[in-house]
Amino acid sequence: MKVLMTIMKYIGWCIKGIRRKIRRMSPTQKKLAIVAMIALLAGCFMGNGIGKASEKKRSEKKVQEAVAKVQKKAEEKLDSVEKELYALQDQLHDHSVELPWNLVLVNGLHPMEEGYVPELTEIQPGYSVDTRIANATRKMLSDAEKEGLHVEICSAYRSVERQEQVFGDSMKERVKSGMSYWKAYEETTLNVAIPGTSEHALGLALDLISNQYTELDEKQEETKEAQWLAENCYKYGFILRYPPEKTNITGIIYEPWHYRYVGEEHAAKIKQLGVTLEEYLQEHYQAEEGGQ
Predict the structure, then answer these.
(1) Domain check: are 133 and 39 in the same one?
(2) Domain check: are 79 and 208 in the same one?
(3) Which residues are within 8 A (CB) of 152 and not within 5 positions of it... i.e. 6 or more apart?
(4) Residue 152 class from Cβ within 10 Å (0-12 exposed, 13-18 middle, 19+ buried)?
(5) Cα–Cα distance measured from residue 136 to residue 284, given in angstroms and rounded to the nearest whole number
(6) Active-site annotation holder among 82, 215, 255, 279
(7) pLDDT-derived band of residue 171, with 50, 70 and 90 as boundaries?
(8) Tens digits of residue pLDDT in 41-88
(9) Residue 255 a catalytic site member
(10) Contact between 181 and 243 (Cβ < 8 Å)
C-alpha cells in the first residue's frame, strides 16, 4: 500500500511538472507538444493494432499449416487404400470363376456390360424377356393359372433408356412431395435400380403381381399368387431376387414381386441355402466351381 501511494505521488509530481513546463512554452511550442503527444498515442494504438494483426496472421498461418498436414496425411492414406483395393481386385480377378449368362451379377456395385442388349422374345403383349428364358417363364405362368391363380406381369425387359426414365420419374415424385434432392435420390435408389445396374436390362428379371392386388408394396406377399411364386418359382429356374432383411446385401428393399432367372439347378440351391444371389456367388458357387 505504501509503495502504491509513493507511485501515485510520483505520477502527481510528474503531471505538475509537465503542466508547469507547458505554461512556460510559447504558443508554437505548445502546438508542437500537442502534435507530439498525439503522434505518440497514435503510434501506441497503431503498434498495438499491427501487433494484433501480425498475431492473427501468425495464427491463421498455423491453422493453414495444420490443415495442410492433415490433408496430406489423408491423401497419403487414400492412395494407400486405393492401391490395396486395386491389388485386391487383381487377386479376385485371378481367382474368380467366369460366370455363365444366367448367373451374371448386376447390382449397384456391378453394372452391366455397356451396350449389352439380349435377344428378346415377347411372352405377353408389351412384355419381352431373354429368349433363353421364354419357355420357362411361359411354363411358370401357365402352371400358376392351372392352380386357379392370376399372375400378371407388370414389368419385364427394360432398356437402359427406359430405366433412366423410370428412375427420373421416381425421383421427381419424391421431390414434389417435399423431399430434398439428395434425400429423394437416396430413397429412389432403394426402390429403383440406377440405370445400368438393373437386372431388367438383362432380360432375366420379371415383376409379377396378383391381379387381385396390384400395388408394388410388401402387402403383395399376402396374395395367393405371391405365396405360390415364392414357394414354386425355383422349379422353373427363378428366385425371389430381393428377399426380406437382405437390403444391406442387395442394396434394394424387399420386393415380393421381383423374380430373377438363374436356372433350375442354382435356383434350387439358393432356395435351400436361403441366401441372395450375391451371397451364393461369393460364398458357394465360386468355391464349388473354383475347386473343380
Answers:
(1) no
(2) no
(3) 208, 209, 210, 211, 214
(4) middle
(5) 24
(6) 255
(7) confident
(8) 455 555 555 555 566 667 667 656 655 664 565 556 546 645 554 454
(9) yes
(10) no
